[in-house]
Amino acid sequence: MFKLNFDWKILGNIQGxxxxxxxxxxxxxxxxxxxxxxxxxxxxxxxAGINLNNTITIPDTSNRFYYKMALSIEEMASTRDTTTFWxxxxxxxTSNGDRPCPFILQILPFFGFRSTDPKELIIHWDSPxxxxxxxxxKSWRELINNPT
Length: 148
What we know:
The chain has one domain (about 10-145). Strands 1-2-3-5-4 form a five-stranded antiparallel beta sheet. It is globular. By secondary structure, the chain is of the alpha+beta class. The protein is built from three helices and five strands. The chain has helices spanning about 10-25, 30-35, 140-145; strands at about 55-60, 65-75, 85-95, 120-125, 130-135.
């Protein structure tokens, strides 16, 4: 069952990571650099899923586990050409290793998403992490039909 302990403090923390993500977008060059974060001696930018400014943990109402959520604004590249585009990237995992419930879609508007419709998002269930991507300026359909 999908039940989160939401209160005003948590809503305020969500607004805090949302503002941080919007003020600190991550370009392609930085994303590529972040892939080395777990290498010895790495001293570069911290990936959003680890950066405390981009993450929040919210307990389940049972208080037996929690959801870890991360939000970032990222520049992505097309696999077909040199087009780049910006996405809102939200990821969620659970502390008990279970796959997050699909009803997590319903909280996306709190993180700045315009839609909760799976047809308007790219959703990747990489168990135990779920990723949700939404284009910043247009829909995926618009991007496919007019990539520039």
